[in-house]
């Protein structure tokens, strides 16, 4: 099958042909004809399957007729993270070179006014994160009544980040007769409820399951001590055992661990840089650009980079922490071994990780081999790691108390942002106010003076886009190979 058989316009085919690609991936071959027929599409596809082009190409064809009006975009694409939104914009720039379309990207971390000015001039396509989109709408800068086509990308990641209430609100603001393209790697119950509510008789297209890992990736587990310092020593020993590493991504579960690992590796002479959700937008983009240009060898990342980050020829992936959610393991190691290349994935496993490690093996339906780096591990920890092959006695996917505490510390309520400032870091005047409240008698008389309300400094509400978009480290990037062609038009499709 070729792109010419899918019903795309001559302009789009010319742009695709100019890049030298004629064979669509499975998700593209199945989704594009239905999208061009104005059907709602429910696409189930994992990262690297080419689903960005599955909605960009038909959208370009459909937008050739008509024109945009001020503050009324014709199509809307919702992405969970800023990086994904910007990389979809790059997809339009690469494939829409034959079209004269106006594309507005609405994301946090950048100035509001230039975005509003672009909408005022009329935008054919709006690519946005939910928080910033609603900010523009609430300020009266954006009207959604003219949207003909809605794309919801990475829906399961939207759920993880607490965006589902925003998605529901946005969908209710759009015309009932719109067309909807809905893409997700998994279908938890909440996502099923969302599709049943907002999709009309959708065509379901599905590619390889999320549990599959590329056959070109060699996977190993490494026993290591639970002590954080000894664990960092084990990581450095593991890295040195691999000889010359072209480039590698080191994943950690928490942003604080990412910062600590970067400091530790740089201290010991490794060329490393951090990438996590607390960095401002310009710093994140600079770090990613440096890694793509091979100016940085080791990218230390939280799961903000786990999905869709497509860097050519990443040779190694190191999981410093065993992922709490087993699906994240598949997305992490999917950064290497792409397009048929050879990849290497290593995971440090402590005695506290046995339940999560077992869940990963159950998901990928294979045992991960052990790799010995000569780091001494106590007998109790060794037996605990080996015991991960067995099932949790309580049944189901259990997790250690330490893992539960770690997950609880990192997880924030949806739609809110908790302050990470400790009591010791609060101003002294605030603590005095707290002591005054505690010291006050339980029975107040009518004339009892209350503690001054101004004793505690007012807590400033963060902006909507910052509050929601940094509540979770976020998913993945949708990027491009830095070679001749965007990665979403890769020739290969995972089985």
Your description of this structure?
It is a single chain. This protein has 18 helices and 14 strands. It is of the alpha/beta class and 495 residues long. Helix content is 37%, strand content 13%. It folds into 2 domains: 3-206, 3-Layer(aba) Sandwich (Rossmann fold); 217-392, Rossmann fold. A 7-stranded parallel beta sheet has the order 3-4-2-5-6-1-7. It is globular, with a radius of gyration of 24 Å.
Helix-strand blueprint:
Layout lengths: L9 H9 L7 H11 L4 E4 L6 H12 L12 E4 L3 H14 L7 E4 L5 H9 L4 E4 L1 H9 L10 E4 L2 H6 L3 H10 L5 E6 L4 H10 L4 E4 L10 E7 L4 H14 L6 E4 L3 H13 L4 E4 L5 H12 L5 E4 L14 E4 L6 H8 L9 E7 L4 H11 L4 E2 L8 H8 L14 H10 L17 H12 L24 H6 L26
Parallel strand pairs: 1-6, 1-7, 2-4, 2-5, 3-4, 5-6, 8-13, 8-14, 9-11, 9-12, 10-11, 12-13
Helix pairs in contact: 2-3, 3-4, 13-14
Quick recap:
Helices cover 37% and strands 13% of the residues.
């Amino acid at each position: 099958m070729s792109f010419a058989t899918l019903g795309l316009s001559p302009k789009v085919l010319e742009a695709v042909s100019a890049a030298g690609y004629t064979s669509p991936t499975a998700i593209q071959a199945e989704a594009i004809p239905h999208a061009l027929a104005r059907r709602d599409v429910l696409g189930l596809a994992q990262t690297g399957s080419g689903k960005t082009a599955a909605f960009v190409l038909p959208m370009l064809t459909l937008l050739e007729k008509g024109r945009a009006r001020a503050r009324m975009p014709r199509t809307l694409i919702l992405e969970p993270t800023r990086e994904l939104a910007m990389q979809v914009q790059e997809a339009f720039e690469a494939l829409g070179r034959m079209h004269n379309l106006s594309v507005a990207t609405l994301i946090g971390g950048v100035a509001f006014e230039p975005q509003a000015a672009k909408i005022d001039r009329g935008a054919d396509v709006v690519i946005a994160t939910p928080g910033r989109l609603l900010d523009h709408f609430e300020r009266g800068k954006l009207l959604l009544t003219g949207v003909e086509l809605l794309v919801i990308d990475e829906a399961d990641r939207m759920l993880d980040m607490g965006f589902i209430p925003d998605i529901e609100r946005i969908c209710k603001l759009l015309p009932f007769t719109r067309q909807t393209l809905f893409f997700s790697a998994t279908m938890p119950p909440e996502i099923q409820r969302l599709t049943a509510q907002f999709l009309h008789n959708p065509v379901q297209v599905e590619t390889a399951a999320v549990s599959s890992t590329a056959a070109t990736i060699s996977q190993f587990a490494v026993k290591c001590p639970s002590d954080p310092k000894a664990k960092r020593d084990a990581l450095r020993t593991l890295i040195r055992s691999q000889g010359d590493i072209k480039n590698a991504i080191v994943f950690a579960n928490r942003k604080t661990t990412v910062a600590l690992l970067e400091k530790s590796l740089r201290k010991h002479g490794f060329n490393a840089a951090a990438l996590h959700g607390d960095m401002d937008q310009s710093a994140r983009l600079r770090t990613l650009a440096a890694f793509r240009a091979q100016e940085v060898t080791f990218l230390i990342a939280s799961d903000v980079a786990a999905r869709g980050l497509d860097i050519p020829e990443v040779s190694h992936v190191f999981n410093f922490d065993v992922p709490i959610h087993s699906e994240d393991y598949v997305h992490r190691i999917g950064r290497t071994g792409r397009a048929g290349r050879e990849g290497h994935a290593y995971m440090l496993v402590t005695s506290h990780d046995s339940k999560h490690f077992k869940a990963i093996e159950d998901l990928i339906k294979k045992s991960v081999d052990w790799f010995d780096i000569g780091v001494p591990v106590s007998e109790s920890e060794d037996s605990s790691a080996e015991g991960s092959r067995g099932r949790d006695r309580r049944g189901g996917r259990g997790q250690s108390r330490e893992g539960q505490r770690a997950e609880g510390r990192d997880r924030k309520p949806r739609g809110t942002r908790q302050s990470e400032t400790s009591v010791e870091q609060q101003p002294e005047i605030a603590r005095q106010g707290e002591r005054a409240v505690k010291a006050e008698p339980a029975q107040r008389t009518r004339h009892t003076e209350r503690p001054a309300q101004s004793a505690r400094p007012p807590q400033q509400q963060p902006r909507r886009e910052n509050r929601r978009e940094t509540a979770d480290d976020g998913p993945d990037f949708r990027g491009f190979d830095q070679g001749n062609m965007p990665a979403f038009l890769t020739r290969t499709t995972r089985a």
